[in-house]
Amino acid sequence: MYFLGMSEWTSSSPARSVLSVQSHVVCGYVGNRAAVPALQMRGLHADALNTVVFSNHTGYRTIKGSIMEIAEFRELLAGLEANGLLSLYSSLLTGYNARTEIVEEVGLLVDKLRAENPSFKYVCDPVLGDAGEFYVPAELAAAVRSALVPRADLVTPNQFEAELISGEPTMTECSNNSLFSIIDENYVYIYFISRFLYIHK
C-alpha cells in the first residue's frame, strides 16, 4: 500500500486541498462516502473528518452507529494542527452533522483557516431536511443557520433548507425573488438550490 507523505502533499498542490467534515455511512453514497471520491476524481487532495458513522443514511427506519463527541472532534483538529497539517487546507466542505457543539466549532475553524489564508473557501451543504421534514433537531438547524451559513462562500441548500435559511416560503415566483433577496443581503455571495419547485402564477 502506498502512502502519501506530508512532503509530497505540500510540494504538489496545497492550494487544492479540501477538508470534508460530514457523515460516513457503511451502506450507501452520501456524505463523505460520496464527496471525497468525487473530489479526488477532480484532482483535489480531499481528507474526510466523519461527524457520524452510521449503518445507513437517516432516511431509513432503523439507523445504527455512533455520533462523534465534541471532545474527539477537537482532539482530531488539534492533532492536525500540531503536525502543521490543518493550515494546508485551502477549502472546507461541510455536510451532515448531529451535534450543535460541533457546528459551532466548525464556525470557529472557518474563522481560523480564513485568517491564516485569505484565499480560503468554505462550502456549506446545510443538510437540515427535505420535503418538509427535518433530518436534525431544530436547535442544530438554528446553529447551522447562524454559525455556518453566514461564513460560507457557497451554500447548496435544497428548497426546504433554503426556506429555513431565509424564513421565506418558495411556492410562487414572487416569494422566490424575496427568498433570493434575503440570501443575497444577509448571507453568502453564491448559492445553489437543488430540488426546487414553485407554483407559477
How would you describe this protein?
With about 200 residues, the protein is α/β, with parallel strands linked by helices. It has a domain of about 130 residues: Ribokinase (UDP-N-acetylmuramoyl-L-alanine:D-glutamate ligase). The chain contains seven helices and nine strands. The strands form two sheets. The chain has a seven-stranded mixed β-sheet. Strands 6-7 form a two-stranded antiparallel sheet. Helix 4 packs parallel to helix 5 and helix 6 packs across helix 7. The longest helix has 17 residues. It starts with 5 loop residues before the first helix and ends in a 10-residue tail after the last strand. The N terminus and C terminus are likely disordered.
Short description:
This protein is of the alpha/beta class and 201 residues long.
The largest beta-sheet arranges its strands as 3-2-1-4-5-8-9
List how many beta strands DSSP finds: 9
Output the helix-strand order.
Answer: HEHEEHEHEEEHEHHE
Count of discrete alpha- or pi-helical segments spanning 4 or more residues: 7
Attribute tags:
two-stranded antiparallel ribbon, 40% helix, 7 helices, disordered N terminus, 7-stranded mixed beta sheet, disordered C terminus, globular, 201 residues
Map the helices and strands.
Blueprint: H1 6-12, E1 17-25, H2 32-41, E2 45-54, E3 65-67, H3 70-82, E4 91-94, H4 100-116, E5 121-124, E6 129-130, E7 133-134, H5 138-148, E8 154-155, H6 159-166, H7 173-186, E9 190-191
Parallel strand pairs: 1-2, 1-4, 4-5, 5-8, 8-9
Antiparallel strand pairs: 2-3, 6-7
Helix pairs in contact: 4-5, 6-7
